[in-house]
Write a structure and sequence with these properties.
Elements: H1 3-38, E1 45-48, H2 59-68, E2 75-80, E3 86-91, E4 100-105, H3 112-133, E5 137-143, H4 145-156, E6 164-171, H5 187-194, E7 204-210, H6 222-226, H7 229-232, E8 238-244, H8 258-269
């Protein structure tokens, strides 16, 4: 072998070595990241409020649930601003594997175009939170338009290879906005139906509707909430529509309804299980709250 060939071989070896070091380092870091996420015990509840509501919308609900069931779920409130930056209030306590994270938006206005924007902001917040806290599964909750934001997000942004959505629950979801007839479908509902196959199939979903006069909850028609069946029913693991009546069954009061609090605890905090080792107290339900 002449000196010229030896020179080329040595140069090639050096290039391979220089390229191999960062690749090895990246592979090692990536494997460590995947192992950390795979082994993470954290399973947060991520909640989105309705239009005109901020990230502090569920503070009373969290306090009520913690008091009723003698639990101590942490509360972290995240606001996504129109410049895509995030601000935080509260924290996740050490050892709390079932924290509650609320994502609100600086632009919290109503309307389909804003719902699309909010879904994009949700994706920014979700990705940031997942990288920070390394969780691989979660439960989701949406009140009113928060339900629509979740639906658009699941159809257009959610990556089921990165995380698993177990339980999904909504309250007063206006899937057809204020239309009281399912035959008069809004553009939003038609779009939801069009892209429904993008929704992960292994979700257990409970949709809760309140009725003031057996036709609506004072704002959202029951028929509009029921339109969720065209998106989810037969398309996921389980879809259930639950209708609540009586006191505190109006749109804005539902979060104080004792039956709702029981359903929220059962499906969202307890993953739909009837046995909860952390549950020390069960509320007494009355059909006329």
């Amino acid at each position: 072998m002449n000196k010229k060939n030896l020179k080329y071989i040595s140069l090639a070896f050096i290039i391979i070595l220089l390229l191999g070091i960062p690749i090895f380092s990246w592979t090692r870091q990536n494997n460590s990241h995947l192992a950390s996420k795979f082994n993470s015990p954290l399973s947060p509840i991520i909640m989105i409020p309705g239009s005109s509501a901020r990230a502090n919308r569920f503070e009373d609900l969290v306090k009520n649930v913690n008091k009723t069931y003698n639990q101590k779920h942490s509360l972290l409130e995240v606001t996504v601003h129109t410049d895509n930056k995030l601000t935080y209030s509260g924290s996740i306590k050490n050892g709390d594997n079932r924290p509650i994270i609320v994502i609100g938006f600086e632009n919290n206005k109503d309307g389909y175009n804003n719902i699309k924007k909010q879904a994009k902001w949700l994706s920014i917040a979700f990705d940031t939170l997942q990288k920070r806290y390394q969780f691989n599964n979660f439960n989701a909750f949406g009140h009113s338009n928060g339900s629509l934001i979740w639906t658009y997000y699941l159809e257009h942004y959610f990556d089921s290879s990165e995380s698993t959505l177990n339980q999904f629950q909504t309250v007063g979801a206006p899937f057809n906005f204020e239309e009281s007839s399912s035959t008069k479908r809004t553009q939003m509902l038609n779009d939801f139906i069009k892209y429904k196959n993008n929704i992960p199939k292994n979700i257990t979903y409970t949709s809760i509707a309140g009725t003031k006069k057996f036709s609506d909850d004072g704002i959202v028609p029951l028929a509009s909430v029921d339109c969720g069946k065209y998106i989810y029913e037969g398309n996921i693991k389980s879809y259930t529509l639950i209708t609540l009546t009586g006191g505190d069954a109006e749109h804005s009061d539902m979060l104080d309804n004792k039956q709702f609090i029981s359903l929220f605890h059962h499906y969202i905090l307890n993953n739909g299980s009837n046995t909860d080792p952390e549950q020390n107290k069960k509320p007494q339900l009355n059909s006329n709250n």
